[in-house]
Design goal:
The chain is an alpha+beta fold. Strands 2-1-3-4 form a four-stranded mixed sheet, covered by helices on one side. α1 links the parallel β1 and β2. The longest helix has 23 residues. The chain starts with a strand and ends in a 15-residue tail after the last helix.
Length: about 170
């Protein structure tokens, strides 16, 4: 498999976690969403993935893709911080309540689930957009537990081949 990915993309991170959890070896093809006006808009990438988004996972000639950077672009640079903080806080307010009845070691009991694959990148987004995580002790506890797992460590944005040197772990 080939994963067309951007180091900071939370959607790409979820795919990297899933591949690591399943023990699936893959090749990473970095697609810089900012450089040169966005490498996802190149004719070469568009031929592979007409949606021009990352991640794109190519397996046996089939390409699967999904992304969320386009939302931030639509909101506009001057509104991104406020929009992101409001969206994340709203989601975390609900999630913290839900986790009271579902959480064990992880989001749903004591086995890693799709919810966990979504949680860790979203907590990273919260930190990036300076959301106060104090009101979310369950989310914070689960996130810390998940980040200790190898699959979450090797897939972390700070450990990707296209991570800028100043952001590497």
């Amino acid at each position: 498999p080939i994963l067309y990915s951007y180091f900071r993309s939370s959607c790409s991170w979820r795919v990297r976690i899933a591949l690591a959890l399943k023990g699936i070896d893959y090749e990473t093809m970095p697609i810089n969403l900012i450089k040169d006006g966005g490498q996802q808009f190149s004719k070469e990438f568009q031929a592979l993935n007409p949606t021009r988004q990352v991640p794109a996972l190519e397996i046996d000639g089939i390409t699967i893709s999904q992304s969320n950077l386009s939302v931030l672009k639509q909101v506009g640079q001057e509104n991104q911080l406020t929009w992101a903080q409001n969206a994340i806080t709203s989601g975390f307010n609900s999630l913290e309540q839900i986790l009271q009845s579902t959480a064990g070691q992880y989001c749903v009991g004591d086995e890693v689930s799709m919810a966990d694959l979504c949680l860790v990148p979203q907590v990273a987004n919260a930190e990036r957009f300076k959301v106060d995580l104090t009101p979310y002790p369950t989310i914070s506890r689960i996130n810390k537990t998940l980040l200790a797992l190898e699959a979450f460590q090797v897939s972390h944005p700070c450990r990707q081949p296209d991570t800028p040197a100043e952001l590497r772990a």
